[in-house]
From TrEMBL:
PANTHER family: BIFUNCTIONAL DTTP/UTP PYROPHOSPHATASE/METHYLTRANSFERASE PROTEIN-RELATED, BIFUNCTIONAL DTTP_UTP PYROPHOSPHATASE_METHYLTRANSFERASE PROTEIN-RELATED. It catalyses: dTTP + H2O = dTMP + diphosphate + H(+); UTP + H2O = UMP + diphosphate + H(+). One of its GO terms (molecular function) is UTP diphosphatase activity. Keywords: Cytoplasm, Hydrolase, Nucleotide metabolism. GO terms for cellular component: cytoplasm. One of its GO terms (biological process) is nucleotide metabolic process. Its cofactor is a divalent metal cation. It is found in: Cytoplasm. This is dTTP/UTP pyrophosphatase. Its EC number is 3.6.1.9.
């Protein structure tokens, strides 16, 4: 049976795969993102997802490697993870009352085939006061997230609406990934998921 390898240290991507009961092994990848020169957000995540995916070698022949990278883009500029509170404040001030785009590049590869695609979701923020932004920054939720917010946690209160895949904003366009994995012989265990939901009701 094919074995899925998640080439990522992101806890959010692990949580998303766990959500639909896809068995996988997490394996760290080491790439130098500072050398990336792509200016287009779409090209950037495409190239970085591929770079991450190719940086992880196959341990056995039946492995399928999944890699991804997510960025926030506003007016064509890529917003990565903020280095400090001041930078996080600046990012959220830019996004306040505006629409921005979230791009995730995904690469899936086996020894016999590979798939690369980019998913885009548009996100609109409510107009935010300085107090709104500082209250959010006080939660500490900003610093390990592109664009300085997490839609799946405290940052949800900043978001007015989205157009596209919600999970793409979290860090992985889950539905499209699962459908793409079918051609590699990897499927979620939905019977186990149903059992969990039933058992917790």
């Amino acid at each position: 049976m094919p074995q899925l390898v998640l080439a990522s240290s992101s806890p959010r991507r692990r949580e998303l795969l766990d959500l639909v009961n896809v068995p996988y092994e997490a394996r760290k990848q080491l790439v130098d993102e500072s050398k990336m020169t792509c200016r287009s957000p779409r090209a950037y995540v495409h190239a970085l997802a591929e770079l991450k995916g190719r940086s992880v070698p196959f341990s056995v022949d039946n492995e399928v490697i999944l890699s991804a990278d997510t960025v926030v883009s506003f007016e064509g500029n890529v917003l990565g993870k903020p280095k400090n509170r001041e930078q996080a404040f600046q990012m959220l001030s830019m996004l306040s009352g505006n629409i921005h785009d979230v791009y995730t590049g995904v690469m899936i590869r086996s020894s016999e085939q590979e798939t690369i695609f980019v998913e885009k979701t548009s996100v609109e923020f409510w107009p935010l006061s300085k107090e709104d932004i500082n209250d959010y920054l006080d939660t500490g939720d900003s610093y390990d997230k592109a664009g300085a917010y997490g839609i799946q946690s405290h940052g949800s209160i900043l978001v007015k609406q989205i157009k596209g895949d919600y999970y793409n904003v979290v860090g992985l366009p889950l539905s499209r990934v699962i459908r793409s994995l079918r051609s590699y012989g990897i499927y979620p265990d939905l019977s186990q998921q149903e059992h969990k939901v039933t058992g917790n009701s």
